[in-house]
């Protein structure tokens, strides 16, 4: 598939991810649709990420992105178990996504 189309869809996944995190972490939504959007957008981001990587690559930055992706995936549990304030979870997810964007754009290693 066209790389630009894949990038656009990767970003669409990120938009949906943060819509869901905004609803659950900032607005306190318990709606099932919000947590479903969290899971669906994460899967979309991951699948399209690997589709863009294509053939096995000698680079390593994407492994760090995988860790950041995993963190954003489990982070809502930190708020659910009252280990962190929801706004703090949101801020950490935003920082993780910023780092993921930097890695995707710069591909430093
Ligand atoms: C929530 C986590 C993630 C965020 C916020 C994120 C964000 C981004 C952004 C902003 C870009 C730049 C798009 C552009 O070039 O205009 C990008 C590119 C990319 N990302 Fe992600 N990403 C995430 C997770 C992943 C994962 C898990 C993978 C791999 C399994 C991945 C693989 C890639 C690849 C291959 C590119 C394209 C690099 C290129 O060839 O230009 N991303 N990502």
Which structural traits does this protein have?
109 residues, mainly alpha, binds protoporphyrin IX containing FE, single chain, 80% helix, 4 helices
Number of strands: 0
- The poorly predicted ranges are none
Main sheet attributes: strand count, strand direction, barrel closure: none
Question: What sequence of helices (H) and strands (E) makes up the elements?
Answer: HHHH
Structural class: mainly alpha
Q: Could you walk me through the main structural features you see in this protein, from its secondary elements to its overall organization?
A:
The chain has 109 residues and is mainly alpha-helical. The protein has one domain. The chain has four helices and no strands. The model has no long low-confidence stretch (mean pLDDT 97). The structure holds protoporphyrin IX containing FE (HEM). The site of protoporphyrin IX containing FE has 20 residues, from helix 1, helix 2, helix 3 and helix 4.
Please give a quick description of this structure.
The chain has helices at residues 3-26, 32-53, 61-80, 86-106. The protein has 109 residues and is mainly α.
List the helices and strands and how they pair.
Layout: H1 3-26, H2 32-53, H3 61-80, H4 86-106
